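From the thread on structure requests for the teaching lab: each student submitted one protein with a one-line request. Submission from student K.M.:

"Model Amino acid ABC transporter substrate-binding protein, PAAT family from Treponema saccharophilum DSM 2985, tokens only."
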Amino acid sequence: MKKSRIAEFAGRTALALALVSTVAFTGCKDKNTASSKPVLRVGMECAYAPFNWTQTSDKTQDGTPAIPIFSEKYYAYGYDVAVAKMLADHLGMDLEIHKSEWSSIGISMDVGDYDCIIAGMGKTPERELAYSFTTPYYYRDNCIVVKADGAFADVKGLSDMAGKDARVTTQLGTGWIPLLEQIPGGIKSGNFETTSECFMAVSNGVADVAIVDLPTAQSALMTNKGLKIIQLDKADGFVGDGPMVNVCIATRKDDTKLRDKLQKAMDELGWNDKAKMDALMEKSITQQPAAN
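Reply posted by the TA:
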């Protein structure tokens, strides 16, 4: 009887171990299968609407799936995310969005946190020394943002600001910073990590003028009616703001293989058509949560 119980116990133990092994093996198999697809790892702020933003919902306003932010419980969407998803799908890759502060977005790519930057980044001569770039995936116009009822609401060109001691600001680490020098008599009131902080500075009276791009300004005015967008007259506007107009994908300087792969996908998708770009941007602006 004793031997029988021992045998029964041993049999049950063996069966239990077999079941555990089977479950463990099956779990590993599923995990490996799910991760066998190549991954396009993309870095962006997730705080630069309408190019990219953070949201709590896994869908946008019209039901479009948002993308989970790597190692976070939130989701990302915006023009940059839509383009990244389009390219990843075309290349047969999964998309992985990595959130980064703008001030360290290049450093994080260089150390391998992700492999490319799709983040509303303008292609400037200085950046070309550090990164490899595709052709533009968006063309944007620059503008200034002022208080709708403020002293600069009727400005048409840069000359209109002469002698008015305008307090000026823009986003840190951008190609807009040199443009601050072109505002006659402009007083630097300090620059900010995000464009949202720039808009807040104008709203709160900390600054009078913020230099940004048009889509971002249009996005901001959806939730801040106290601001006004001014597109300066061409004959009385900024000189040398061209590089910030060309928004390109960046890879590490020596990673021309990925750069060329992404460029090929853009070419095959016909993503050099400004009408397509503008249509997607217009749609992206309507998809952002009110909080952005």
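TA comment: The chain has two domains: 39-140+244-287, 142-230. Residues 87 and 262 are 7 Å apart (CA to CA).
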